[in-house]
Amino acid sequence: MTLWLLRHGEAEPRARSDAERALTERGRKEVRKSAEHLRGRELAHILVSPYLRAQQTAELVRETLGLTLPLTTVDWATPDDSPRTAADRFEHYPGECLLVSHNPLLGNLSGLLLHGNLQEPLGLHTASLVALDGDIVPGLMHLAGLHHPH
Known about the structure:
By secondary structure, the protein is an alpha/beta fold. The protein is built from four helices and six strands, in the order βαβαβαβαββ. The chain has a six-stranded mixed β-sheet, sandwiched between helices.
């Protein structure tokens, strides 16, 4: 099984709250470029953080790829949520899955799934896309791809 992790594109530096920060035009371009790596994949689920920039990123992925797959907003995918909690939640979403979220969650989640610990997070830029293969168990997944848009 492949698990895809996509960090949102570049966002405005300020808004009324962190959750309300929107994508910049550069961020939109980054996302479209990263989304191309998902072309032809048979995604069963698109899970997305409730934050605006992640929602906009997920919508751009759907638009770029011409997908009609619904977006599933999950409350456990905000920047400071637990990578261990996130790893446990994927059992509810069988099949190939894309999670659109934030750092530090995604870098820490990647490190946890690859190495079995939180001491080796994966370095992710805005709109970086990670492909992990294997059973979604800490330490048992393999890095199948890491794409940076710049």
